[in-house]
Every structure is written in structure tokens, then in C-alpha cells.
Amino acid sequence: MINWSNLSTQQKWLSAAVVLGLLVLLLFSNYVSTDELIARLLVLLISFPVHELAHAVVADRLGDPTPRYYGRLTLNPLRHLDPVGSAMMLLFGFGWATTPVNPGRLRGNQQLGSILVSVAGPLSNLALAAIAGLFMQLAPIDNRTVFFIAANFVYINVLLFIFNLLPIPPLDGFNILANLLPVEMRQTLLRIAPYGSILLLALIVLPGNLLASVIMPPVDALSRLLLGF
Hints:
Elements: H1 9-27, H2 34-61, H3 66-69, H4 83-92, H5 110-138, H6 144-164, H7 172-180, H8 183-190, H9 196-205, H10 210-227
Helix pairs in contact: 1-4, 2-5, 2-6, 5-6, 5-7, 6-10, 7-8
């Protein structure tokens, strides 16, 4: 995946122009409400960096210096954001960022370490959703716009939590599943990893709402629980 920090200066300007143009287009269209678009921007600027920092911190604590070497032990969004993943977030309400990790450099049981690194990201989204939901319950929001932005922030983080646990490469759930399997089965499963992005994109864009039918019921239920509805 492409990372903002790895782009040339020209590529950064081009990517920024595309994302800014997309943002302006969405603002002046009826495709998404302003409340939801603001929530998606907050997710880009807060949730994505927190998610990737969680991966980076766990990997660093377990002995892998790769995230530190690439400057990922930070909440600076520009160190984590992927231009394509950012555009997907603005368009569809979910996307991705990146953190390089070398499982071979993790101390101790590398399978367990890799699982811990992978699960840290989704758990950070769940934690953000829980904190925001608790705040909304303890301090009710009277302003309708602020309320819907906060509610969308909770909803998107729950969506990212569940979405990232799907056992499809390159999502965290795939790495978790692969490291739970015996070596022989893991090697067989890893053969599909290069085609994971194509499979994931197909599940997202193909008609039939297969992906939505799988993840939306638990997303709705957990969001309502955290929001106290």
C-alpha cells in the first residue's frame, strides 16, 4: 500500500489536490451529509493515527524496531495516511492507513506477537468508540449537528473495528487467522494474500451487499449499545 510519507513532493501535492478536490465535491453534493463528512474527517485525523500507533507501539515493545525506524511512533496523521485509503474513507466511510512491521523481529513466540500487533489496531477503534459513546451518555449533547457528528464518529469506529477483523488480506483479521493456524495451513492461506485487495474490493463494489449483510448487523448492535440507544 502507498503511504503519504513515502511519496515524492510532486506526488504529495497531487495526492493532496485529489483528496481536497474530493472533499470539496462531497461538500457540495448530496452524496453524504455534512455531519457525516466531518465525522469521516475526524476519523482520518484521529482514529487512523491512533489505530496505526497502536500497531507500532505493540510491535516496538515486542522488539521490532521497524515502526520506529519509519517514524510511525507518532500521532502525526501524515506519517500513517494512505492516499487511496483516505479517499475511500471520505467516499465510503471506511478505509485504511499503514504501519510497516517485521514479524520476524518480534521477540518470543512470533505467532502470538504478530496476533497481538494485529489486534491492537482494531481494539484502538473500539476504545475510541467506547470513550466517545460514554462521553455522549454522561454529557448529553444538545446541539443537533454536534450530536450527529459524535454519533457518526462512534459508528465509523465500530465499523472499522469489525471490518478490520475480517479474515481477508490485507486486513488485520487475516493476519490473526493466519497465525492461529498450523504452519502447513498458514502457508496455504498466505498464497491468497497477494490477491486479497482485489477480493476485498470485489466484496465492496459488487452488487448483492454481501459484505454489508455480514458486518452491518453487529456494527449496528454494538453502536447502539455504546451510544445507549
